[in-house]
Specification:
Blueprint: E1 2-8, H1 14-28, E2 32-39, E3 44-50, E4 53-58, H2 64-73, E5 79-85, H3 89-100, E6 105-108, H4 114-127
Amino acid sequence: MKIIMIAGNSSTGKSTTISKNFRDWLLRQNAKETDKTLEDNKEYEGVFQYKGKTIALHSRGDVYYLVVFAIVKYTHLNVLVIAGNTSKKYIANLVKKIRANENHCVIRKKKATDKDNSDVCEKIIAEL
């Protein structure tokens, strides 16, 4: 499994980028949503089929055990796009480990703006 982690401090738009921007892009590409575990105003967890790949999205990146649980839960899939709040010590350490693995990718999220959300979404697409 390839992990694409959107990493940044609190309130930089990591969840919005995953749950809205990237999810909407997948839907516009006619990707099939095969599982939806969570969807509310801000957070999303679900699975898509896209161009022969199974892609999980997990936007709950503030709680360490939920991040680790998602990595374990989706390890059998092709790609996991996940948020990681680097202002949390344990998650920041996890980001370093993911970044050190050449099969994975960490994309830094700096601002909660529409432009930054779109730019990060484009980087996710390029990593698929």
